[in-house]
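TICKET #2291
ISSUE: user wants both folds in one file
ATTACHMENT 1:
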Amino acid sequence: MKKKQSLLIYCLLFLAVSVYASESSERKYDFSLFDGTLDSFTMRQMKENYMSAQRIAVDSINELCGEKTFLKIKVSDWINYLWPSLTMAVTHEEGHRSILTANHIGSISQPFFNGHGAAYVKGVTNQTLIDFRDSDKPSFIRMYLGGMESDYLMLRESEKMAAFGFDNKEVLYPDFIFRTLSITGYLETGFIYHAAETQSFYKWYWKTFYGLKEEPNELERDICGLDPFGATKALFEDNYEFHRYETPENFTKEEKDFITYRVGYRSYLNVLNPFLFMKENFRITDDFYLTGNIGYFMVPFGDSIEENLYFQYKGFSLSNLNFHFYARQNENYKTWFPSFGLELLEFDPSSWLSISTGVHIWWQPEDLSFYATDSFVGGAFEIKTRFMLPSSFEGKTHYVKNWGITAGTLYKSAGYMPGIEQHKSHFRFSLGLSMEF
């Protein structure tokens, strides 16, 4: 019931706001209605719905405010660059929650900042989390990382839309820059703690902004605390003394070095991105455009460095050819494991049909273990179609120019796939609604 109500509120709210959206934009917005389960939103489902909602909202605010300025800065910029700082926690916390839900653990997402300046997923006992750790270590670690995983996937989605012209960079950029700085800053918190050990200013800064105290009622506590620290402790050790809000005070030197130097330094790879400087792509020829970036995020068995390339060819007679290729280098304790993927995005053989498809292959450590040196091979295939229905709106004054339905299927073998909560082999069918304004 909560899922249905939330989805209804999403659609009604942003359909109402879209009345003010630019009539000349005619961009498509997809909303996921079903993504393999009726339990609650999946990570991908939340990403798709939030992305469409925030794109409509930003475009509407730009249209409403026009060229009005305050302190020589556009009023629309004041609004659009402020509200992601308040709403980003919605998708971040849902990322954590989706991992618990997929593992049949009930929880409550509280995506609004409390008196500590933190958003929580709560309603889980310590013993439930300990049992989760001892029965499924990779999924337990991923519980910590689900929020940052969701953030990272949304960064990649914004880049794809900008690179291939699915939306304007001015619409996508406010959420993108805030999320980039947020995930990079979160991954470098080891540096801040390291400085706090020796410098009084950083010690005050750490206690003020990161010094969470466990609430007396364990059901009111956040499941994760500081995500990178909890994940690091779980990567290195089994059956350790469980602390809800883990800090490096309980770390070995090797664990401190991992979170401070390996994760901390690699986090800066996320700023190696042309879109961070408002450059969505580079024109190579009249018909060929290219861009790319380097990214970094933590995974349930260590961390991952990723290279993305976005190719667009406009000379094909039927449709633009939009290709996304990525290569990942995943590392656990001291062993590297490669992954690759290729996607064809929004190929339009006709005015009423659009097809997106992707193939992924990976080598990952046995049992998704931090210390394993042997690997297994896995992969996934996915396809999504959008069917735009015959429209009766042509020539009439309607804010919705066209609408249609989306349907998708995905099959993955055993292994970790960003955005898919299950580590075992998994088949998923999805269904959604598409609107064009």
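ATTACHMENT 2:
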Amino acid sequence: MKTKHLILLTATLAITSCNRLDVTGMFFSSGTHTEDRVAQWLEWNDQHPATVINGAPDQYNIYVCSDIHLEGNTDRISQFLQHEYADPSGLFSIVNGDLANESGPRPFRQLDSLLRLPSATDTCFVTIGNHDIYFDCQQYFQQYFHTSTYTVTVQTVSGAKDLFVFLDSGNATHGQRQLQWLRQLLQQRDQYRHVVVSTHTCLFRTSYNYSTTPAANLPEEEYYQLLDLMSDHNVSLFLMGHFHHKEEHTLGGVPYVMTDNLNEQKDQPSYLVVTCANKVSYHYEEI
């Protein structure tokens, strides 16, 4: 039965026109794979200092979305960014993977352009998703956003420090090199008030969706390694996307929160507002 469904899916995708889908790329990535890609990200990091945001208020908001799947229309991602800019407590935003829904540079150029408008008062940080690799777009992600394995440190006016960690899970694995980088990073956990980790692929297989099958979940061994690592280091929040619906779990004292998709086809899309204060809290907002 599953084989028949897969054949039907492939046939359906094959007759879908234009550059929206790269059927071969869904199953055989045209870009480099995780280990090689992470090596490129870390090499870029070595030549560019990590971002530090100084003078933040002791309580601030972060706006998070994922799966924007740009293919021409940018209304909803524009609304999302404007909501963050209009929030006096808004500090920055996150687009957590799957920027593209077509081959070519247009989705990345569009998002980059939105972030360079005069109204773009705050920074936006991104991660790479499976669409950004499978649709032959890795080169364009790299051209516009440079790295998907990196950190952002927020220093507040009272001297607290929060660490935001961004990971590459575009091939449904973080790879050994990236996990080792993460382990070393978390050895410094006691320096930070909060640590928030952001990656595209959802850790939990709670629903089945054929559109996510080629990059649905992490290998089981890696899944347990990550859960232990997050719990052992008291990570404040773990952010995910990919499955196109809202979902929340708490394991080992760590909240795992999945954002909804924010593409133009969604009937009632939403995003996440994360509040960092003495504690980390969050809530969903609809557009």
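RESOLUTION: both attachments delivered.
EXTRA DETAIL ON ATTACHMENT 2: The two ends are 38 Å apart (CA to CA).
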